[in-house]
Automatic annotation (TrEMBL):
<feature type="signal peptide">
    <location>
        <begin position="1"/>
        <end position="27"/>
    </location>
</feature>
<protein>
    <submittedName>
        <fullName>Uncharacterized protein</fullName>
    </submittedName>
</protein>
<keyword id="KW-0732">Signal</keyword>
Length: 376
């Protein structure tokens, strides 16, 4: 999985590249630490040479020429194009090869002092973090800002983009703001989609910022269709509860653990999303149950049902959560649980606009392969 193999880390390259200076012929084979480093170096270089690159040119690229074994290519621009085109192949090969090495006797060691597993993990992250940062498309640093600018271009408050402040709002906090947002929704989504289409790295970036454009469009459409229920519900979600916080913490911990397992096991994308989707659906159920248990007059069934529909719409599209596939009544996203009849009969009165606030929940994770939904 590309978003798991490659990630940018803050460690300096100088702290780790010394490992690949070690020549197998000079390794201390009777020393566990050196044997671990030797095995790692051999596996990495084999993946490089299997991709028809020379190890010297590769080391020049990932160490900025600081390795004593690096060799500068004759045509640097041509080499960058070549090596960046092989990024996924070399990364997949390396992580798959190292998976068995990292758990070998040589790397596990006989004590904490001789255990080299964390050293190898750090080296992998730094090497491929450098590799990735040098091959990345410029839009990786600009796409989020460009998407935010779509709000301004559509005449909307840019603060609404991925808002996670206590007084933020997905579509506004009063009838006037909601009317403006819903009226400009088509132009906003079109603008965002154009900028996504123009960025080759958009899928990875959108995962990192927890945004899927089609799901976002479906989600805000749900809110625009029921403005009074939405407005009334803002007061319910203005302040979190311990139970709600525990749900978020549980999801965050599960996602971090999932990322570690996927990286070390070199999981396929389908295997990753099978596990991820279960975490996502469990979070929807946990979150809605927690809000439903909140003792607040605004937390009525119509409000909780609307939030459930929104959260189900915002689940990653890879999870295939839709009404045609949900047949079991006890499923978290079964349409009966959206309380649509309650919405139709919802009181026309609403709470004071000045008192209405909204919380957009965004779970922060440590990996780029991680997806969590913007919630109502």
């Amino acid at each position: 999985m590309e978003n798991i193999w490659y990630r940018k880390v803050l460690a300096t390259i100088a702290a780790i590249v010394c490992v690949i200076y070690v020549s197998p012929s000079n390794a201390q084979t009777n020393n566990q630490a050196n044997k671990c480093i030797e095995d790692f170096s051999n596996a990495l270089i084999k993946c490089v040479t299997d991709a028809s690159l020379t190890s010297g040119n590769f080391l020049w690229f990932v160490t900025n020429g600081t390795s004593s074994r690096s060799e500068q290519p004759a045509d640097q621009n041509a080499f960058k194009t070549e090596i960046c085109g092989l990024q996924q192949q070399i990364g997949a090969c390396t992580f798959q090869s190292v998976a068995s090495i990292i758990n070998s006797t040589a790397c596990v060691g006989t004590s904490a002092a001789t255990n080299q597993q964390d050293v190898i993990r750090t080296q992998l992250n730094t090497i491929f973090g450098t590799y990735d940062s040098k091959c990345m498309h410029p839009c990786r640093n600009t796409l989020a800002t460009e998407l935010r600018d779509c709000y301004t271009d559509s005449g909307l408050d840019p603060k609404l983009f991925l808002s996670n402040s206590s007084n933020g709002a997905v579509v506004g906090s009063n009838e006037e703001q909601i009317g403006m947002f819903c009226g400009a929704k088509g132009a906003l989504v079109s603008c965002m989609q154009r900028r996504v289409d123009a960025c080759p790295e958009a899928p990875q970036i959108l995962r990192a910022i927890d945004l899927d454009i089609p799901s976002f469009e479906k989600g805000v459409t749900v809110l625009c269709e029921h403005p009074k229920v939405y407005l009334h519900g803002l007061a319910c979600f203005a302040d979190s509860t311990n139970e709600v916080d525990r749900c978020q913490q549980k999801e965050a911990q599960s996602l971090v653990q999932l990322d570690l397992q996927a990286r070390e096991g070199n999981w396929t994308e389908s295997r990753f999303f099978e596990a991820f989707c279960q975490i996502a659906i469990d979070q929807v159920e946990c979150d809605l149950k927690a809000w439903g248990n909140k003792n607040h007059e605004a937390c009525v069934e119509a409000v909780i049902g609307l939030r459930r529909e929104l959260e189900c719409e915002l689940v990653a599209p890879q999870c295939n959560v839709n009404t045609k596939q949900i047949n079991e009544l006890d499923h978290t996203c079964h349409p009966e649980k959206f309380m649509k009849k309650k919405r139709e009969n919802f009181s026309k009165g609403s709470a004071s606009a000045a008192a209405l606030t909204y919380t957009a929940i965004s779970v922060t994770t440590l990996v780029t392969a991680v997806y969590s939904a913007m919630l109502l």
